[in-house]
Amino acid sequence: RKIFKFTAGVLHLGNTTLKSNKRDEGCTIDDAQWIDKACHMFGVNAVEMTKALIKPRIKVGSEYVHKGQNAGQVKYSINALCKSIFEKLFKLVLDMCNETLETKLRKNFFIGVLDIAGFEIFEFNSFEQLCINLTNEKIQQFFNHHMFTLEQEEYRKEGIKWDFIDFGLDLEPTIELIERNMGVFAVMDEECIMPKANDQTFLTKLINTHNGKHPKFLKPPAKSEPLDILASAY
Asked: Is the pTM of this model over 0.70?
């Protein structure tokens, strides 16, 4: 029952509309019925939820302050919250399935499924797609290392005549560009706590940090979308 309630809460929360203030850059909830219904399903206080979305409490230095957000930023926050709740629901359902299917009997066989498709490129590549691509490549790196590189090392130790095959297309530099210190994720985290940060300031910081300095980072051509970034995979 709780799974259905939280699913309904996510759907209601996604219907929330916002209205920009005329006097400042802030905003208000346009129709409170959706967030009220969502909070009822979640079992939380609707007033406190609204305050947390409109003016979130963030830590600046050693103090906490309330950061005003415009309609676009609040919509991003709502979408992020919906995705986070849905992710936890998915994991909960998965754990429940695993517990139901669990057996104390001896396991003699198993089936392993590995997706090593690597980076996928679509017309529009969202943040979620970036995370999927990164995960795919880290799994493929692990797979290549243990199934090919280490296996060939065993051949060498055993004196087997073998022409070493370089399973190249090593995407470690691209992986580092995304998750290393001052990589895409680190810069994104930093921009998320800046008072007036937006997509353009995020892009500018990435270009200033990596353009011409990292071999896998490419500044998009002038004809591309204004907020595009390019990461070379191969």
From this structure: no
